Here is the input.
Amino acid sequence: MAHSSFLDKLTGQEYGRLWAWGNKPKQKGEYELASPCRMSDLPQSHLEPILVEEAKKLGAEFRFYTDFIGLDQNDSGVSTTLRDRNTDITYTVRSSYLVGADGARSSVVNALAIPISGRQVNTAFNVHIQADLTKYISHRPGSLNWILNTEAPDWSAVGNFRMVRPWTEWVVSMHPAAKDGARFEPTEEDVINRLHQMIGTNTVLIKVLSTFEWTINDQVADYWQKNRVLCIGDAVHRHPPINGLGSNTCLSDAFNLAWKLAYVLKGIAKPALLESLGRERKPVGDNIVHRANTGMEAHRTLWSVIGLTPADRAKALALLGEDSSAGRSKREDWSNALEAIDAEVQALGIQMNQIYSDSPGVIAEADDIAPSFTSLDSIKDLKISTYPGYHLPHVWLAKDGQSPRQSTLDLAGQGRFTLFTGVGGDDWISAAKSLAASSWGIDIVGYKIGFGGDYLDCYREWAHIRGVDEDGVVLVRPDHFVAWRYPHRSESSEEQLRCVLQKILGF
Here is the structure.
């Protein structure tokens, strides 16, 4: 998805386009440094069935068409009352914990009376359609195509075609001209007419799959946990889809919580570990919501430059092509407005720089100095470090010259702690093996990186970013975040490692 385009109509004049999602030539290398995987645009309607099927393989049970009625919790667990919509039967499920991941209208958050800070900004209207738009899109492939034209009605002053499947399935968002305008409920005929107008021809066959109104929010829950109930996802952070980080952030919340909850249920960790969820993820939620709404305001600035009413829009479009000082000023305003949106589509920093700096779930040695990235743009630039609280950097490794390369991210995770050391770090490896074999039940594995070790540092990148000596250690949590590091070998490696893990796990 190389571009985000801004057009009069899909068949009409183009006002400009932006390189998007890591395709800007001078930034491609930064995206390759960040991850072994290419960015993928996978809409929720296609992602969720994949997640459901994978969860079923692991034994998860799903009950659809089920309403949450209420909950009651005590020191031993949570009783959740549910209603089956098909049978209208109400029943109760008893569990040790409850996770409220039920979206922006969360009934669980409401039942807990958790305060939500922020505001509802506006409403928008979405249409999910099937329509073959290949001839209008394939020459400038992009997941977002913004339509700005003079004929737009007030209820749909600005719209965009959001690709679901290239180039035949779309979600089209339509935004009203005013934040506080009167609500308008379009008929299917209104919708089809507006879609044809946005395309620029009524010859395209359009099948409407669904329509729905949604709210543009600027909201974050004040806290994410109340005793044995933990809330994640859109239930606790609600924002417009700018930067495309909604589902990503929800999955990151779940990734953060899942291993902690598993460890507590298995007795490997104390319940106190769960309190780190809000400490770690709420600042991320705050940042994402702020950035999304800042990006939304950048779009509103662009819309105002092009004109939000038919009359203003016609005047602005005339000025854009006018050889005059007013025309030059309008073109400069337009260029600046586009540049402000570049932070949405080339936002590696906001996508990847999730740092847990104030959490009991990470430990920094007293003399370990946090890195300074004051020269970097925190929205656009990647921060790479193994300092505790940072995400484990991606580095290519290989077992030997005859083996496929693997990322450090491939070795870490999988529900266990991972220890990375190098030449001279054999005691750390032994310590990990000893703890893994102990009655504690903790899952931990160690890898030696370097000559004579388990993996070769293919491009000598790990040596540059590991942040410790060859015989030092970097300890990584199951969710790929650095838990702790120590600069060199230790005379009491096993005891030191045990103490660190116990502290992180709440003992």
